[in-house]
């Protein structure tokens, strides 16, 4: 997913956000969601710590609901 599409989805409050880190996969909500999206935005701007990486993709169901999957690795 390119940065433009990621930012578009990250701005939408109706998009569910799921984080995959190591072996854990969890939905991220509330303040944790905002903190995660701020870290992702920093990464997209090139301000991530060394060896930090995010990969993103989206999933859509027939009802047009969207889930943003973020995989974090370091």
From TrEMBL:
Official protein name in the record: Uncharacterized protein
Organism: Actinopolymorpha rutila
Higher taxonomy: Bacteria, Bacillati, Actinomycetota, Actinomycetes, Propionibacteriales
